[in-house]
Structure formats: C-alpha cells, structure tokens
Amino acid sequence: MGCLASILALLLLPLAASAAELQVRYPAGSFAGDFRFAYPVRLLQLALDKTAADGPARAVQAMLPMGTERIAAELERGELLDVATFPASRELERRFCAVRVCIRKGILGIRLFLVDRRRLDRIAAVEDLDGLRMLRLGQGFDWLDAGILTANGLQVVPSTTYEGLFPMLADGRFDAFPRGVYETAPEIARFGADIPTLAVEPRLALIYPLPDYFFVSRRNPALAGRLLRGLETAVADGSYEALFQEAFASDLRAAALDRRRIIRLRNPYIDDIPHAGDPRYWHLP
User: Fold this and answer.
1) Angle, alpha carbons 131-136-141 (nearest 5°)
2) Domain coordinates of the chain in residue numbers?
3) Which of 35, 44, 83, 45 has the alpha carbon at shortest distance from 182?
4) Chain-centre distance of CA 103, in angstroms?
5) How crowded is residue 12: how many other Cβ atoms within 10 Å of its Cβ?
6) What mean pLDDT is reported for the chain?
7) Taking each helix axis from N to C terminus, what angle separates 239-255 and 38-50, rounded to the nearest 10 degrees?
8) What is the DSSP letter of 103?
9) CA distance 282 to 193
C-alpha cells in the first residue's frame, strides 16, 4: 500500500488513546536557536493538540544541530527524528510520507532579496527575469530552491552551510540572496552586527509555487495520519489561520508586495498543489 493510501486508511480508523505521552521529535536547525524551526514546532504541537483523543503528545526538538541532508537521513533512519519539514518535491514524496497541508500557506515561495547595500547598484537595474539572469544568487548547495533557480536559467552560487552564505554575500561572492518573506528581518537581526551593510532590496520580489509540508518516515504512517487530521481540524476551526497570522502578518505587511515588481518562476519539482486557490490553505499575493 502506498503512503497516501495508508494515511487515508488510517484516517478512517479510531485510534486507541495511550496514557504515556508521545514525544514527537523535530529537528533543531543548523545552529543553536535557529529561528527558522520555531514556527513549525508550534504548528506541530497544534496538530498534536487537535488530535488529543489519540493520546497525549508533545513536540520536542532534537538536541543535535543538522543540515538539510542530515535531517533527511535521520528522518529515514528514525533514531533521532520523527517528523521534519521540507519544501515539497516528487522525490521527497516518494521517499517519505508527506502530510499535504502546507505549513506556511505557501509564503516560503515569496522571496525578497538580501543584498549588501554597498553593491545595491548591481540589482538596481533589474526589471524582469532576463535582468535577474545577469546576477549571481546565493543558495545552500542542497536546497530545493537552488534547483528551481537553475531550472529558470538563473546563476546560483552554492554554499555548504546556511551561515556561510552571509559572509559570502558581504565578500561579493554573489549579488543577492533570495530569502523567504518572513526570514529577512530575523536574519538581519542575527547577522547584521557582523555585516552592518546587510539590507533588503526595496523594489523586487520573486514568487514561485513552493509548498512546505511535514514529512514522516514511511514506517510511521499512523503519525502522518494523525498530523493530517490535526492540521485539517485546525484549518477548519480557524486555529491554523490564527497561528499563521500571529507568526507572519507583520512580515507580510512590511514586505509591501503590492508595491514591488513581481518576478515569477516555475517550479519543475512538483506536479500539483492540494486545495489550490483556497485562502484557508494559501496566502495569495
């Protein structure tokens, strides 16, 4: 039975509640206190709370920092992690059980450009995709985004670590660093002390379809089914939207997307988007 079929079958079965608290282990990020991993843990706990009839459960973060490849390997192994989040792709959906409710309503695919303001002139003349193709863009070497950018004819300069991208930008190794709309402010707060010229480019935004899901080992479809039921319940009762607004509303307002020139890319790594166009599941700029 395929992963999706297993999840759907489990949704129809009542699960016996357990008195023992289940600890659901989620990654810690690539460095201590990695802000990018805080919201998914809160949403994971919300999904577990919405399925409390299945037994008490608590989302906890692993103690060991990990990069993307290590997270995927550990999730497959199942000794340190039970669930992780990745941008969706056909390959990952074959490898793991995907819980197909986008955890951030698609805003991972809304990108602003971090730049070094000393070299802002390099991007100041860009008006469209052809202009953007003249620039070099920084990305993690194992990020799905790097493949999306390359597939659209853009030049990518890879880094083996997330933290290493910021001094590379400051050193002029590339011209701009596309970041999620909610990532720029905390990244400037974290890295700006060492790179005071770090800034958000004020005119452009890059948008491509990029749902990010919780993924679970194929050996644990029961957990995938529980998370899907929990997220669907949270969407239906409004608690998913409330958490999304609490986490991201101020970043979306600050981005002022209605005043930016939008450059749209295709994503060759996905085939379909569940609930496409439904504002309960997607934030549509």
Assistant:
1) 135
2) 3-104+211-237, 107-207
3) 35
4) 8
5) 7
6) 92
7) 160
8) T
9) 34
* CA–CA separation, 224 and 240 (whole Å): 17
Among residues 41, 26, 30, 35, the alpha carbon closest in space to that of 142 is found at: 30
Which pair of tokens denotes residue 110?
């809304």
What are the phi and psi torsion angles at 279 (to 5°)? -65, -15
Distance CA 173, CA 119 (A): 11
The rounded distance, in Å, linking the Cα atoms of 73 and 85 is 13
User: Token pair for residue 169?
Assistant: 């930008």
| pLDDT greater than 80 at residue 128 | yes
Calpha distance 111→23 (Å, rounded) = 34
Strand 204-207 and strand 261-264: pairing? parallel
Rounded to whole angstroms, the Cα distance separating 111 from 102 reads 17
Asked whether the whole model's pTM tops 0.70, one would answer yes
Q: Could you check whether 3-104+211-237 and 107-207 share the same CATH topology?
A: yes
Q: Report the topology of domain 107-207.
A: D-Maltodextrin-Binding Protein; domain 2 (3.40.190)
φ/ψ of 65, rounded to 5, equals -60, 145
Residue 201: per-residue pLDDT: 97
- Tell which residue, 178, 184, 111, 175, has the closest CA to residue 139: 178
Q: What is the pLDDT of residues 54-112, one digit of tens each?
A: 999 999 999 888 888 999 999 999 999 999 999 999 999 999 999 999 999 999 999 99
Do residues 78 and 123 lie in contact, with contact meaning Cβ atoms separated by under 8 Å? no
Instruction: Report phi then psi at 182, rounded to 5.
Output: -95, 0
CATH number of 3-104+211-237: 3.40.190.10
